[in-house]
């Protein structure tokens, strides 16, 4: 329990890298991959295809919900148990889980159009 308190303090201080390299997270990550058979849960459930998972995603965002950092499940507003940690592929992690990140990678229009 003391170690969990330390991990939560790391997250709250903004040092999520130390959390993601901790032995506790590595164990939990492995547990989630095994539970999900190393398959991307978004590809499997939304697109009906099988893709190898490379990331374990926090459904309840880590910085907003540090108390759930190692919780496999959470209880939603209706009192229903939901998955908090899911295995996803790199593509789904960026496009489905964090679409807000995609804007910085989109090609922007030039300020002026070149006429060569």
UniProtKB/TrEMBL annotation:
UniProt KW Hydrolase keyword: yes
Domain HNH nuclease span(s) in chain numbering: 27-94
Coiled-coil stretches: none
GO molecular-function term, one example from the UniProt record: zinc ion binding
UniProt keyword annotation of Hydrolase present: yes
Keyword list, A-Z: Endonuclease, Hydrolase, Nuclease
Entry-linked Pfam families: HNH (PF01844)
The protein, known as: HNH endonuclease
The organism of origin for this protein: Anaerotignum propionicum DSM 1682
Upper lineage: Bacteria, Bacillati, Bacillota, Clostridia, Lachnospirales
């Amino acid at each position: 329990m003391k170690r969990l308190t330390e991990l939560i303090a790391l997250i709250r201080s903004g040092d999520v890298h130390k959390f993601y390299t901790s032995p506790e997270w590595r164990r939990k990550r492995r547990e989630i991959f095994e539970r999900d058979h190393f398959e991307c849960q978004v590809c499997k459930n939304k697109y009906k295809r099988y893709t190898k998972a490379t990331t374990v995603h926090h459904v309840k965002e880590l910085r907003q919900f540090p108390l759930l950092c190692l919780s496999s499940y959470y209880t939603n507003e209706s009192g229903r148990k939901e998955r908090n940690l899911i295995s996803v592929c790199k593509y789904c992690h960026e496009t489905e889980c964090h679409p807000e990140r995609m804007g910085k990678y989109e090609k922007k229009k030039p300020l002026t159009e070149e006429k060569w």
